[in-house]
Amino acid sequence: MEYRNLGGSGCAVSVFALGTMTFGDNTDEASAFAQLDAFAEVGGTLVDTADVYVDGASERIIGRWLADRPTDITERMVLATKGRFPTSGEPNGAGLSRRHLDRALTGSLRRLGVDTVDLYQVHSWDHLTPVEETLSFLDDALRSGKIRYCGLSNYLGWQIQKTVDTAQLAGLARPVTLQTGYSLLSREVEWEIVPACESTGLGILTYSPLAAGILTGKYRQDVTPPANTRMADHPMGAYLRGRNQHKRTLAVLEAAKTIAGNSGVTMAQVALTWLAARPAVSSVILGARTLDQLTANFPAGLQLSTEETALLDAVSMPRVDFPYGGTVIHQMTRRIEGGWPM
Predict the structure, then answer these.
(1) pTM greater than the 0.85 cutoff
(2) Cα→Cα distances 149→58, 220, 293, Å
(3) Alpha helices, DSSP H only, in 42-90?
(4) Are 13 and 282 in contact (CB under 8 A)?
(5) Where are the domains of the chain?
(6) What is the tens place of the pLDDT at every residue in 99-114?
(7) Which CATH number describes the domain made up of 3-306?
(8) Which of 73, 101, 255, 333 is the most exposed place for a label (fewest CB within 10 A)?
């Protein structure tokens, strides 16, 4: 297992993290324990959860696993959780206010059975709460020892920049990470979100790295998706089925299949290796319903060649138009950078 710094912090984490959104739902406690054990055995350290995952069941399961395993295993784990979304129906039961986050963090610590969580992430932007209020709470939580680092999740580029700039100007703790969806089929984050992270020194934690299973190659064209899969049963099933028919998707799958066949690995491992090598990525979050699904995605020591990376880059490039590099602006930029006459 490779290790990288958590953004601009000095904390080392495994390049692949364990996502636990299914714990307590599609993944029962025994299966969750098996996933955590297997993850720790291959050197995995970063475990990601949230207070709203299955109404707190994910955090409780992780807490019971930590209490049941020897300290030489559990002390290696870097725990990450999140707060922001509704945990009650009362008016202050959601958001990034000091009041809600204080209760949310207290609840997460209790369910996890720990005094301190390594990375506490605000789960999404809150347009009602001043950024200064949220950052002040996170700074206090860090100084009081309840958290070691803070991070962002599902923020847009301007929201990232505003938050980091405000923290610096106010002398408050700066976020060290941004969690966002990112994959060979979801590269639009490269237009503003990735550059914002590079500019501010935030490490990216990627979720949905296999595009809800599409990049595993398990969904065949014009064949009914297997039962109990996201494409068949998930509320987004219709969207995923349509996406699976896109020309771009087909081109990406064909390229990944070719590279996988030449290297003796799976298509998923090709997609994960490509993603782990993207700029600013600190860790790629693996989420799975079963132990077999998880272990199939563990790193295989694969290193993509320059040619293989270029192929994947080319076939996965989303359609880009003004102002992100459409034909006119791209030609103008080339002229300016190359010293061409206008």
Answers:
(1) yes
(2) 21, 42, 30
(3) 57-68, 71-74
(4) yes
(5) 3-306
(6) 999 999 999 999 999 9
(7) 3.20.20.100
(8) 333
